[in-house]
């Protein structure tokens, strides 16, 4: 079930270094929101605060609020483990578990969450692989290791693994940057289908990709190296790419810097 | 030196006679410059030297062993005796083989789980500032000479085993394996415990290195699915480190199989098989050789060398088995990720 994300006054640190400063935004359910901006502007860090992965990094800590519908992810007594079961994530480099088969990779999250009968597991795995447009390519070799697939297939396997547990939100951290154009296209098509069911946030360095897949786009920037990253603006993608309200956004998009 | 011989990208030199086929082949392999040739020679030589040494040991052991075994009046594999002096020598390795294997199994059963737990604690649970000091102490444990372990075992460990042995006898004595006749606890279990302490550091250190090399992205994959710290360990760390832990255990096992002084100091040996691990007696290959070598005549030494050959073979078999285990699930090993 897709949920709305409401971020207010979010600041994240690595030790004493402030990585992102005072970010507020709203992400609508069943939409794709793209984060763009130059390297080091904190868009990946910000993404990782949305499922509390930021604090896994030594020294990582967060101030501010992230509301998932009405539940504060950083509220007292909220278990980061349960947050991550509601907010799934796909990483830059495909990272299927190398020691598991394709089937077990997709079932990994389910097995964490509870006891499923074999038949239920089979159904969910098939549904998730179909959902990731991978079923036809792997249905005959579900027991083979996931690391034997191509890079693009591995990334779709990771998406299948993430959606198998039916998260509310799906975070994608440059999911196509390690892939060739054809695999990238397959993932972009998939994102278009997945937004019917999930709230999707995607970080990308590829502005054409942001323009192709997203409904809304957020532009992040930093004043100088070592300065914290800030949200410059967030608006409908069409508007960001045609007529942004901030000059820096237009400079970045038209290739004048970054 | 002419620059054109140093760079690959240099334009081709003016026409020259075609190089002979052999030269062409060597050029293709890239070993044409003196540094490459010297390095190739060194590495190849080292590899060959290793094989020659192994072969020399095997030949030496086999030759001397065959001299002794051909004059054995008992059965070399099944005789429960070790008499090499006199006209009718009778000796067999049954007791030694069983003792060696049993003491090593006990040591492994105790040391591997503890070592893996320590390694996991150091890599995934301990506060960062404690990791260094704890790892250092474990390294120190590996630096203690084995005779010191033996003395500690004989003077401290043995007297303190009575309580454990009594408890085991009370509750598990009915199995026979843990029956105790209240003799001095210079028995296989004590040896196994001492060996476990001795092999703990090497298994811990190698396992720690392996666990440290689990790629961050696999652990993050598990975390992002909502795995707890233990579930991350179970899903990503242990499977990835499995073959490394097996290798680490084999290193430890190698030491346990061959350990001499510590066993000789602690064990009160005899040449019988004992069902109980708690009653004194039995022996190991290395302990037997150390105990008898100085007083043995030439034939007696050949007999001991024959027992050494068996230990050599057992070690080879164990290593082969470990390699099989590692190879069987190679495509899942994570090495190809």
UniProtKB/TrEMBL annotation, chain A:
GO terms for cellular component: membrane. CDD domains: ABC_PstB_phosphate_transporter. Residues 5-247 form the ABC transporter domain. GO terms for biological process: phosphate ion transmembrane transport. InterPro entries: AAA+_ATPase, ABC_transporter-like_ATP-bd, ABC_transporter-like_CS, P-loop_NTPase, PstB-like. One of its GO terms (molecular function) is ATP binding. Keywords: ATP-binding, Nucleotide-binding, Translocase, Transport. Pfam families: ABC_tran. PANTHER family: ABC TRANSPORTER I FAMILY MEMBER 17 (PTHR43423:SF1). NCBIfam families: 3a0107s01c2. This is Phosphate ABC transporter ATP-binding protein. It comes from Streptomyces actuosus.
UniProtKB/TrEMBL annotation, chain B:
Pfam families: BPD_transp_1. It comes from Streptomyces actuosus. This is Phosphate transport system permease protein. Residues 10-20 have a biased composition (Pro residues). One of its GO terms (cellular component) is plasma membrane. Keywords: Cell membrane, Membrane, Phosphate transport, Transmembrane, Transmembrane helix, Transport. PANTHER family: PHOSPHATE TRANSPORT SYSTEM PERMEASE PROTEIN PST (PTHR30425), PHOSPHATE TRANSPORT SYSTEM PERMEASE PROTEIN PSTC (PTHR30425:SF1). Belongs to the binding-protein-dependent transport system permease family. CysTW subfamily. The gene is pstC. CDD domains: TM_PBP2. It is a multi-pass membrane protein. GO terms for molecular function: phosphate transmembrane transporter activity.
């Amino acid at each position: 079930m897709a949920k709305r994300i409401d971020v207010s006054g979010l600041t994240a640190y690595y030790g004493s270094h402030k990585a992102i400063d005072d970010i507020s935004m709203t992400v609508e359910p069943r939409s794709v929101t793209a984060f763009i901006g130059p390297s080091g502007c904190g868009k990946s860090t910000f993404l990782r605060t949305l499922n509390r992965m930021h604090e896994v990094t030594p020294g990582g800590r967060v101030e501010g609020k992230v509301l998932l519908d009405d539940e504060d992810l950083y509220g007292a007594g909220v278990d980061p483990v349960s947050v991550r079961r509601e907010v799934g994530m796909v990483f830059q480099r495909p990272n299927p578990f190398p020691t598991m088969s394709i089937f077990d990779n997709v079932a990994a999250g389910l097995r964490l969450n509870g006891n499923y009968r074999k038949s239920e597991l089979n159904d969910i795995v098939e549904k998730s692989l179909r959902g990731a447009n991978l079923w036809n390519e792997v249905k005959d070799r579900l027991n083979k290791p996931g690391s034997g697939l191509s890079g693009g297939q591995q990334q779709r396997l990771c998406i299948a693994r993430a959606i198998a547990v039916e998260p509310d939100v799906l975070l994608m951290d440059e999911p196509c940057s390690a892939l060739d154009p054809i695999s990238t296209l397959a993932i972009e098509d998939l994102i278009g289908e997945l937004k019917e069911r999930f709230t999707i946030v995607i970080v990308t360095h590829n502005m054409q990709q942001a323009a192709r897949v997203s409904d809304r786009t957020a532009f992040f920037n930093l004043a100088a190296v070592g300065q914290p990253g800030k949200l410059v603006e967030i608006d409908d993608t069409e508007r960001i790419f045609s007529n942004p309200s901030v000059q820096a956004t237009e400079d970045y998009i038209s290739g004048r810097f970054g | 030196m002419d620059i054109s011989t140093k760079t690959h990208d240099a334009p081709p030199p003016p026409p020259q006679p075609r190089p002979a086929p052999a030269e062409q082949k060597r050029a293709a392999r890239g070993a044409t410059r003196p540094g490459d040739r010297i390095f190739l020679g060194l590495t190849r030589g080292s590899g060959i030297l290793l094989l020659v040494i192994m072969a020399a040991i095997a030949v030496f052991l086999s030759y001397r062993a065959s001299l002794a075994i051909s004059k054995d009046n008992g059965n070399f594999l099944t005789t429960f005796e070790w008499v090499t002096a006199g006209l009718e020598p009778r000796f067999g390795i049954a007791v030694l083989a069983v003792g060696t294997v049993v003491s090593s199994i006990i040591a492994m059963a105790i040391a591997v789980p503890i070592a893996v737990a320590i390694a996991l604690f150091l890599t995934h649970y301990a506060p960062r500032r404690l990791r260094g000091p704890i790892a250092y102490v474990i390294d120190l444990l590996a630096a203690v000479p084995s005779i010191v372990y033996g003395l500690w075992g004989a003077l401290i460990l043995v007297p303190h085993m009575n309580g454990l042995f009594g408890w085991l006898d009370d509750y598990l004595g009915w199995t026979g394996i843990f029956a105790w006749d209240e003799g001095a606890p210079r028995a296989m279990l004590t040896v196994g415990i001492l060996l476990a302490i001795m092999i703990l550091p090497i298994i811990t250190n190698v396992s720690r290195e392996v666990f440290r090399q689990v790629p961050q992205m696999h652990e993050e994959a598990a975390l992002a699915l909502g795995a707890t710290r233990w579930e991350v360990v179970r899903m990503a760390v242990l499977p990835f480190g499995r073959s490394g832990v097996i290798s680490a255990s084999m290193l430890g096992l190698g030491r346990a199989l061959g350990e001499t002084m510590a066993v000789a100091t602690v064990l009160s040996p005899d040449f019988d098989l004992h069902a109980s691990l708690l009653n004194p007696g039995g022996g190991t290959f290395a302990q037997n050789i150390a105990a008898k070598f100085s007083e043995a005549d030439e034939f007696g030494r050949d007999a001991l060398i024959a027992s050494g050959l068996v230990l050599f073979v057992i070690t080879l078999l164990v290593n082969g088995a470990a390699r099989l285990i590692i190879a069987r699930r190679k495509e899942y090993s994570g090495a190809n990720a």
